[in-house]
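Late entry, evening session. Most of the bench is empty. Finally got around to the prediction I had been postponing all week. Sequence below, unchanged from the version circulated by S.P.
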Amino acid sequence: MGTVSLTVAHLDRQVAFFQETLGFRLHWKNEGRAGFGAGGVDLIQLVELSGARRALRTTGLYHFAVLFPNRRELARAVARLFEREYVNYPTDHVITKTTYLKDPEGQEIELYAESPEDGTMGIAEGLPFARRSDGRPSDGRDPLDLEAFFRELKPGDALDQPVPSTTRIGHVHLYVRNVPEAVKFYTEVVGFDDMGFAPSFQMGMVSVAGYHHHIGLNSWMGEGAPSPPPGSRGLRHFSIVLPDASELDRAAARVNEAGVATETMESGVFFRDPSRNGILLTVLDSSQMADRPVEYMETGS
């Protein structure tokens, strides 16, 4: 998973949040746009649109998830939030340790680290399940044991350090108009693997290489929810990074063969899923490094 691009209403306020509260590095800022990350490629890009509002009960981005390299670095990030008295919700998903929070404009963000040694979690036969390594069942959403978690920190660990260079986007979770339709699109057209669909929970997951999920899909905004109108706050697009140009060409050809309109850009191939969520297929190269923003697509266009 690559860069997540968002439309925001107040760029300076968002820049302060990502730098000071989350510890991201500001890679660049100019003409109402900014890029953040861990010192390499942009993980987040923001585009200011004064007066932009969040559209309610529409498709779009539920949350994007920032993956930390280990529990210790996540503990540092969570402790930083507590030190700043920033509201967040530490959660134990068994296979990951997580906290959730919202940015100043209401966009939900997940910070997490992998913990597969603690058990298993997923969807089987249409039902979500979670089980700890000692056999105990879990609903997969238990409160995180913060006392134990903060023991990951070492004496002298400064909370004001930037996020480590190996921090990256782990997954995105999308609101869609219909989950089976979205799962079919992301598996048959884009090329992900189906990791399960839970009808009672209105959620599906897709990934590659057996990962628990790179994209989560839910219809919690309502079956048949509309896409947000142009100029709304929220998701512009998220990027899927292919290993090389030939894989990018193959993926783009598959999308075109499905009758989906694409736009070729310097940084990759842009298109939209059936719920109008923007996707950019790209290849990681020097054109995506911190001092070079990718092109921007208008929300809803």
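Two things to note before I forget:
Residues 286-301 have pLDDT under 50 and may be disordered.
The first strand starts at residue 4 and ends at 8.
Will write this up properly tomorrow.
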